[in-house]
Amino acid sequence: MSTISLTNEQRLELYYWMILTRVFDENMVALWKQGRGVGGTFSQRGHEAISVGAAYALGPDDVIAPMHRDLGAYLLRGITPQRIFGNLLGRASGVSGGRDANLHGMGDLNLNIIGFISHLTHSLPVSLGVAMSFLYRNEARVALTFTGDGGSSAGLFHETLNMAAVWNAPLVVIVENNQYAYSTPLNQQMKSPNIADHAAAYAIPGVIVDGNDVEAVYAVTREAVERARQGGGPTLIEAKTMRMLGHAIHDGAEYVPRELLAAWEARDPVQRYRTFLCENGITDEDELAELTQRAEVEITDAIARAEASPLPDPATVLDGVYA
Ligand SMILES: Cc1ncc(C[n+]2csc(CCOP(=O)(O)OP(=O)(O)O)c2C)c(N)n1
Ligand SMILES: [Mg+2]
After folding, report:
1. Which end of the chain is more exposed for a tag (fewer CB within 10 A), N or C?
2. Is the pLDDT of residue 206 over 90?
3. What is the percent of the chain where pLDDT is above 70?
């Protein structure tokens, strides 16, 4: 664990966002298996420390563009579980009004969230545009976005980082290196084992962080955000983790070696933080059990309310269609 100073209250907040994300995820997977889900379901298991730790490092005026495994960031930034379940269940009350039954497209500009653009890496140039608008307006704000290890091999990743570096944009890019892009392991799509090394080509800082350590993710993101805010330009952060289930729920991921999963299971980000908090006397198992119980009640209630809410009115089908 890192040595940045967080109060014990903040640490319990971080834990709550992670356990809320985990409980949400487990219930989302269960719903899909029961045939109650509608669209695609991308498990977040293993990614909780990245989405929560990074989002926690931003100020309310900063803009975030999460990807499909950043549920924790959506929750932490204020999209309620009920609105997200409404989205997953195709309800009018969902973030996209029932149009995208997925964890995609869940933007809310009132909360400074740009929804995930499902074409991989397109959130990067959009976030760069946001960052440049801050520069032009002389606003001390930062844009933060995420992509995957697979996404980092796409052209837009390089084009965005190159321009962000030249323009000294207040942009933070986090690559969630979960070892696989669908069924393709990292070593079959790039020779370098460290994606952060790409940063050298753009002459910007490249940082590797343990993506299963929420305080470490918070610390490196916080540093990058403050550098960007003070005119220090972009940072590339590579958070190393493991995708613990298939690409989406229909994928059994039989191609992932069991021993690899077992090794990462022993470093589970939620369990690890739980142990850290108890061993350092920050809290005890009773309080953590209470927080878990609170998360379970919040999620169960959100699902019930979302399922009871209406589907979109067919008459609204053309709303938001511009061409
Ligand atoms: C331009 C484009 N090509 C292909 C896809 C289909 N697709 C969605 S996610 C994915 C793999 C992404 O892997 P990675 O970037 O490592 O993220 P992860 O899912 O592992 O978190 C692919 C091929 C897409 N959404 N967009
Ligand atoms: Mg990946």
Report:
1. C
2. yes
3. 99
Query: Ligand 1 centre from 69 Cα, in Å?
Result: 11
| DSSP H helices in the chain | 8-33, 48-55, 71-76, 81-88, 123-136, 155-167, 199-202, 214-229, 258-265, 269-279, 285-308
**189 in the Ramachandran plot: left (φ > 0), alpha (ψ -120 to 50) or beta?**
alpha
Confidence at 257, pLDDT banded by 50, 70, 90? very high
- What is the distance in A from the centroid of ligand 1 to the CA of 76? 24
> Residue 68 CA: which ligand 1 atom is closest?
21
Full DSSP string of 60-128: TTSEEE--TT-HHHHHHTT--HHHHHHHHTT-TTSTTTTS--SSSS--BGGGTBPPPPSSTTTHHHHHH
The active-site residue out of 83, 91, 227, 243 is 243
Residues 110-138 have a mean pLDDT of 96
56 CA distance to ligand 2 middle (Å): 22
Is 180 one of the annotated active-site residues of the chain? Answer: no
pLDDT value at position 1? 43
Task: Answer yes or no: pTM beyond 0.85.
Answer: yes
Given the CA of residue 149, which atom of ligand 1 is nearest to it?
A: 16
- Select 8-308's CATH number: 3.40.50.970, 3.90.420.10, 2.60.120.1440, 3.10.20.90: 3.40.50.970
255 belongs to the catalytic site: yes
Helix (H, G, I), strand (E, B) or coil at 184: strand
Q: For residue 101, name the pLDDT band (cuts at 50, 70, 90).
A: confident
Residue 165 DSSP one-character state: H
CB of 247 within 6 A of ligand 1: the answer is yes
Cα gap 149→226, rounded to integer Å: 25
Q: Any idea which ligand is nearest the CA of 155? A: 1
